[in-house]
Each structure stands twice: as structure tokens, then as C-alpha cells.
Amino acid sequence: MYYRTIVWFLGAGLMAGAVFAAEPQTSPGENPKPIHLIRRPVEPFSAMAKLGHDIFLDTSLSSSGKIACASCHSPDHAYGPPNEGPVMLGGPELKLPGVRAVPSLTYLERQLDFSIGPDDPLNENVNLAQQAEVGKTADRVQKTATQAAQSAANIVPQGGLFWDGRADTLQIQASGPLLDPREMDGGSIEIIAEKLRNAPYAKKFAALFGERVFKDPRLLVAEATFAVSRYQIEEPGFHPYTSKYDYWLEGRARMSEVELRGLRLFNDPEKANCAGCHSSQPSREGFPPRFTDTQYEALGAPRNSALADTRDPGYFDLGVCGPIRKDIADQTQFCGMFKTPSLRNTAVRRAFFHNGVFHTLQEVMDFYNFRDTHPEKVYPVGADGKVQKYNDIPVQYHANVDVSDPPFNRHPGETLAMTAQDEADIIAFLKTLNDGYKPE
Amino acid sequence: MKKNLLSTAAMFGIVAAVAWSGLVAADDFNFRGPDFGRPGFGQPGFGQPGFGQPGNGGNQGNPANTVSTKTPIKHLVVIFQENRSFDHYFGTYPNALNVDGEPVFEPAKNTPKVINNLLSSEALLTNNPNLNPLNGTGASNPFRLDRTQANTADQNHAYTPEESAYDGGKNDLFPLDTGKGTSGGSGGFGTTAQVMGFFDGNTVTAFWNYAQNFAMSDNAWTDDFGPSTPGALNMFAGTTNGAVVPAGFSANTIADGQGGLTLINDTDPAGDVCSSKTAQVQMTSKNIGDLLNAGNIPWGSFMGGFNLQTINNNGTTGCARSSTGQAVGITADYVQHHAWFQYYTSTANPTHARPTSTKAIGFTKVPGTQTVDPANHAYDLEDFTTAVGAGNFPSVSFIKLPAVQDGHPGYSDPLDEQTGIVTLINFLQQQPDWDSTAVIINYDDSDGWYDHAFATTTHGSFSTADTLNGTGNCGTPTLTPEPIGVKGGQVAGRCGPGTRVPFLVISPFAKKNYVSHVLISQASIPQFIEDNWLKSERIGEGSFDATTGSIMDMFDFSQAPNRKLILDATFGVVDSKTN
């Protein structure tokens, strides 16, 4: 893990050079040290991906007959939700609200398995519970945009899919919404298998797996969900890396002054420190930045009373430790933690955080800015006149909330991390992360 | 072999500038005229053109060419891969589904009809014993894995679960006992019954093409049940007995019943600077390296990631060197518990010391001097291509590809494996010494993947770790006694034959499009080395090299040499066949 530090050091140098160096031969707004980004080569769809495309769009697999994967993971909205609702509606009559905001399906093609502690895929003798035990005694280390200290000494989970990392593969993830009674509500493996046997694309299964696959419902559905995952891998739209920022990195686009200022603030550990978790640097190999370190944090987003579940005062969505995820519920040091999402295309979203409590980037920026210096601007005030800080996490887990990574290391009365202008500049930069930019 | 990404170098010029190849420039060899030993002594091919004749395209300065051998083979290259069963790669050989858009495989008309795989009996595919309800929701027939599913989950391949899955030879509890594991990143494929999956010639295309043009076995086994380390030790020493756990460390050993220990699962080698700080083990038996040293035969182990001084293009170095695969993600190059030679004091290079020169590769002492070379026959994979390219092709070379190409599910996959293997074999076929070379591809274990075949137990084990024939039993005490251990006396923890794995021989002298049915094992590799170079001297100390079968059935030293088969490293299809 030591090399991560080196990567950041060099990366920071690159960025500093890009932003500050007054190199006369560079036009304003250009990256003075353009690089080449590695993108997955675009190849013709495999038979598997063609099948997956059909399934991704198939509304017949839902109990309502009206929604498909693509309904909530809208291709026109960066494979995220198409509206501003905190969650999407599903079930037989499309009246049941989902549990969490719909995450985007983009930029997951390089996601690693859920794990705790330093990556070690070769270690066959350690399981998740053992990893987590180690984490209980480890000290927390501050994460900043210029020094990624997350390693053995700072053990939070990383990788995995869904807000709580409970799935490792896109295949397993795909079966979640398909069977969730509040989403597509597919009923059962048998019901879905029967629909697949009679689907217009059924012959594609036979060509790939032989007729025998129809006799095994479990295998048939597994192949169907794998096909969907393969479509997500092969369809460039799920990981295009065509943002203005990508082209800027490559020297093919110019950033405005405001955008560059936003980028600098984004990366500045004394200011927004966004890049401490939303990594903005290409990998050492030259893979484009994903704008997430894929780690898990408890940030203490306010409770969203718009969610039906929250009418029960005893209901808390605690992410990694439950209630949806059940395998490491006893690792209470993770209660309240959710996965850091990529910020690519975040500017086209209208529901932010796992509970969709925020609807604009301005609200999100204010949360980061005011949570610790002016919590009354973020959380409700109770009858006792006290601010109900972290009101979506039970008191016994408040210690899990991140108060070490800037800007969350501040206290009431201290200087704000960002001015209003800073926030506006960062938002301008975030818009350069939207895909579909046309380079010069 | 290195997957260089030049763009990275362009981006981080500073890193590229300090990257160090780790070796001085290849030396020239000034060996005077070749002095071939007794080429083909006692072999039917003696005197055949193109065999054992100096100056016949072979490299005349190559020290290994002067070593006396029983067969025309002057160079053996063992590519030791990870975690595939025979049926998992060859279950429907030679019939591939040929899905649209995938590399096409069409079998030659003279492909052998008798192959012990999933086509041997129709019921294996349609009414398989693993429909056994004890497998629960994992009960399943075998099924095809598509090329897009190359990145699968890793199955359970520990000693005891493998015995349980083979279930006394009924081979009917794979989903229950070995059908578990980790997945390999977001694009991977995994199901409860995945352990029943098999690839065909549309995915393992190169392997099927090698089988079409050279020889393979459908009766090759791991010597014992169990995972990587036991398999690697059996390939190198023919035994897993004689384990010693250093003070303060733990290891996956069991009491052998004679006051000693047998290693039955993975543990890192003692003293390797990259090893775990809590679990390590030392092995005390003799090994084939000791015999080669005594015979002054040039040999070496060449592992991806072994040179800790190299800085990969992604900036990683030391024990953390890593590479990016096509189907999986970034994986560390060097895996300590795969390094057969590191377990023995006599063959270890615990600090990963570098050889003094290319010329010294393969030798205990720096040639022409009395200086002991610090590398002690243990090198980086890049040293292999450097040495061979410089005309110093050792007699025996054991190869471990960087982990991303070693084939192990979860962090490697058949496509990355194919790229590594094809690149290496294409390279070897273009060397002047190819006409006296044999390549063996073999596996350390089956990963627990389903295989329908069972080899009657010949060496039993009766310990708490054994379950093949009920609790505490692998085999029958009266019929299949425990084998002899390092210090004499019968020892537990070495039950086998274990799982069936692929075994291919690629050589001008490999029988063409041939499937051998002779029962062989990992220890057949040291046995062949002993037969070819060491007058059939055996390791002793209970090594299986003395009792296992011979791979000679896969060779024909009197045949017209096979044509070279150059394959495409990405798709495994035939690029060219040349003489």
C-alpha cells in the first residue's frame, strides 16, 4: 500500500504544475502536461452482451410489467435515476418506495470485491470477519487530497457494489432489484425463469448455453443476470470517460478560470479536500480517475423524513452493518458507513446521499461546509433547543462518524472551509465531470 | 512478458527513468565447440536427423547442450499453473460450441476418440451425480462457461473439502464441499453451482490447439489432495512431509504420526522477505534441485515478480509488484506460497538476491570462478527470457508466470493465462534450441473445480483431516497404507492421487494430437528429469517420484519433429505452422 502515497505525491505535483505553473507556451486553461488515458477498447458486442442488453430493457420481468433495469438506471441520466425523488417507486403497482436512492451504474467496471484492510486477493486464509476484527483495533488516520493514508492503519471497508457493498459482482447486484418487492418485484427465481424461457430473446440463451439451460431455473437466472453485467462491461456508455475533465487531462480541452479554481479547491486539503475520497488523479497505469476511493465512510447525512421508513423513530439505515446487509452486522464500527460514490456525472443527479436527502449540489456543498461549524444549518433543532446532529444514526454509533478528514475536522466557531464563491467554483468544476463533452 | 504500457512511462517519465532492468547486459558466451554428451543414448531416435546433432540450428555455445541426456531433450521448461481441473478445461474436448463472435475451434479429423472427459458418458452432462440433493441449491449438471465468463469465482480447494467432494470416488458433492469462494471483481461470474462449470475451445483456445498439435494426458493427478503449496512441493520434491514450523509461527500442517509434520494446505516459506509475518513453514526433504546441483546440471526457477528491485510501469516494486490483467484487475505478481524452491534451505533465495550475470543463471557457482552465485538458482521470469535469448538456456527451467497470468480464479483467468503461456511458448519455438526443447504445462491443484474422474487411492491417510472414505479415512488401512515419510515410517497427510488436472507436453518430440492414458502425477516431472539427466537416480525419503507413472508415453523420439505452432496470444487461434 505504500505506493499509494507515492502515486499521490506525484499526482499532486502533476496537478500543482497544471494549475499553478506559468508555462508561457501553454494557452490559458490547458493542461500543461497532457497525458494519455487508457480506455477500454470498443469492440463489437459479444453474444452475451447482446443478450444482456435485451434483458436490461425487458419490462416483462417486473411484477408491474412496466419497469426494467433501465427504468431506474436511465441511460439518459448516466444510468442513474431519471427524476428528483429521493428513491424510486416499484412493486406491483409502482407505489412502493425503494429503500435507498438509486446509485448510478456507471464506472463500476474496475470495482474490486468488498474487503476490509489492505488489498490482498491472494490471501486465501482470511475471511471478512477476521479482516474486520483487525480493523477494530486500528487507529484512524486522516485522509487528505494530497496524502492518501488509508491503509493498514486506517481500516475501513472498500470495494463492492450497492451503497453497503453487499454484492461483489454486477451479476449478483443485478439480481437485487430484480427480486426486491419494492423494486422490480420479480417474485421468485422460478417465475423469472419462466418469463425468460418465453422471452423474445430466449433463443439467444440456447445459442450460448445449449437448450439444457432452460431446465435449471437457478442457472438460467444466473446466466441472465451475468448477461446484464456483461452488457454493462461491454457497452461503452457505462464507462465512457468522455468528460471535459478527461479531455483536459489529455490536453484536448481548456478549462475556464472558474473551473480551474474549482479543481484547485477540490484538491486542496485545507479547503474542500474533496479529492481526499473522490480521487481526481489518473492511476499510475494511466486509467482515468474514478472520483472515488471506493471506501466507506459515515458522514452523518441528516435523516430524510420524506422516506416512508423513517416514520418509525426506531428505524435507522446503517449501511454496512445493516439492516439490508446482514453478514457483518456485528462489526458495529461500520454502522452508518456508506460507499463513497463516484462524482462523475453527479451534476446530472437530483438525489444525493444514500437516503436522497439532498436534491442539489448546493445543498451537498453546504452540508460539507456547515456540518461541524454551523450544524443548525444542516440538522433540525429539537424541542430542547439542541441541534440534533447526526440524527440518522443512533447515538451509540456517533463515534463512527468521520470527524478527522477535512473539512469535517472543524468545530463551531472555526473558519468555514469554503466561501460561497468557493462552493460555486467547485460546483462549476463538478460539471466538467459530466460525460459527453465534445473536445476541440 | 511484461505488459508494458508505454503511455504510463510517458506520463511518469521520472519513474520510467529509474526503472532498472536488474541485470547487466547479456554476456557473450565463448564456449568452444559443442561437446554433446551422448545424444539419444539408448533411444530409438538415435542418429535421426535434427536430433542431437551439433550445429543443426541449435545454439552451439549453450552450456546445457553439452550435458549428457537419455533423450534428445536438452531443455525442459515446466510451466506450473494454478487451479484448474481437467474436465474444467477439457470436459467437452474436442467439441466447442462456437458461439458467434468467439474464436472458432474445429477439431482435426484424427483427434483421438477415446478421451476420459464429460463426453465419455451422456449422463455426465444430463444426469450428473452432483444433482445429489445433499448439494442443496447448488445441485447441478455441468454447464458451459462462456468466454465472457473467464473471470470466475475461486472455489474451495483445501485438503479436506476436496476429499469430501470426491466422496469416496462418487465425485458427487462438489457444490456442497468445494463450490464456494471469492469472486474476482465487478465483472466476474459466480453462482452457487459454479464449481460445475467448464470452459471449451472458444475460451481455452490455445490449450485446445496445443492438444491438437502435441500431446496431453487425460490421466494426470495431483499427488495429494489440497491446494497450491502441497502441489508445488510435490512437483519439486515429491513429498509434503518433513515440515518444520519456525518458533513463533503457525502453519497448515498436521501431525504425521511419526513425530513429524506434513503440510496439507498453503503456508508461506520460512525466511522469504515477502512471507507472512505470522505463518511460515520450512521443508526438510531433499528435492530435485538438490539432485540437479549434485549432477552439475544447469537449472533454475523463474518466477514473475521475484526480482524485488524491478519497478513495474505502474510504480510498484519490491514484494508489492503488481500487474493489470485483461479480465480481472490489478494483482500482485509474486505469490510466496507458490515458490517451491523457497521452502528448502538448499534451494532458497530468501532475500531474492540477484544473479551476478546472465552467464551465471542456472549455475551454483559463477562460471569460470569459485564464487557462489547469490541467486542460488532462483530468478525472476524476465531472467529466463534474457538468459535464453543470450544463449544460456538451462537444462531444466521451472516457470511461474506473474500471478495475473497463473490461471488462479479470483485474481487470474483463462484469458490472461493464455496470453502468458502463448507468449512464452511462441518465444521458445523461435529459439535455436527449440529442436531439443520440451515444455510441460501442469497445475498445482484443481481449485476444487468439478472433475468426474477418480483415481483409486494408492497412498492413504488416516487423520482428522481426512474424509474421502468417511471421517478419519482417505483410503482403506489394509489396502492403501500411508506412504513412507522423510524419516521413514508411514506418515499421514499425503492422501492421493488427489484431483485430476491438465498436463500437456509441447515439443518437437511430443506425439502429435495424442492423448495419453498412463496415470501420472506432479511427481512425474522430477521423475522425467531424473530419467533424462540423472541416470534415474531418485530423491528418496518417500518421494512419489519413485512410484508414480512416466510421461514418456507422450513422446516419440523417432518421429519427424512436429512443426512449430505459433498462436495468437489474445485469442489462442493459430497464427502459423512452420517447420
Short account of what is shown:
Chain A is mainly alpha-helical.
**Largest interface (C-beta under 8 Å):** A-B, 51 and 57 residues
Helix content of chain A: 25-40%
Q: What's the alpha carbon Rg of chain A, rounded to whole Å?
A: 22 Å
Give the assembly state of these chains.
Answer: heterodimer
Fraction of helical residues of chain B: 10-25%
| Strand tally of chain B | 21
Number of β-strand runs of chain A = 6
Portion in strands of chain B: 5-15%
Please explain how this structure is put together.
The complex is a heterodimer of chains A (440) and B (579). With 440 residues, chain A is an all-alpha fold. Chain A folds into 2 domains: 1-33 and 243-440, Cytochrome Bc1 Complex, Chain D, domain 2; 47-108 and 166-238, Cytochrome c-like domain (Cytochrome Bc1 Complex, Chain D, domain 2). In chain A, 29% of the residues lie in helices and 3% in strands. In chain A, the strands form 3 sheets. Chain A has a two-stranded antiparallel sheet. In chain A, strands 3-4 form a two-stranded antiparallel ribbon. Chain A has a two-stranded antiparallel sheet with strand order 5-6. In chain A, strand 1 and strand 2 (96-97) form a beta hairpin. In chain B, a hairpin with a 6-residue loop joins strand 20 (564-567) and strand 21. Chain B has helices spanning 6-11, 13-18, 86-90, 123-126, 159-166, 174-177, 205-213, 228-237, 288-294, 381-389, 414-429, 524-533, and strands at 75-81, 143-144, 197-198, 215-217, 220-221, 241-244, 253-255, 261-263, 268-269, 280-283, 299-303, 322-324, 330-332, 378-380, 396-400, 437-443, 503-506, 514-516, 520-521, 564-567, 574-578. An 8-stranded mixed sheet of chain B has the order 14-11-15-1-16-17-4-18, with helices on both faces. Chain B has a 5-stranded mixed sheet with strand order 7-8-6-10-9, with no helix packed on it. Chain B has a two-stranded parallel ribbon with strand order 2-3. Chain B is globular and about 65 Å long. Chains A and B meet through helix 1, helix 2, helix 5, helix 7 and helix 8 of A and helix 1, strand 2 and strand 13 of B.
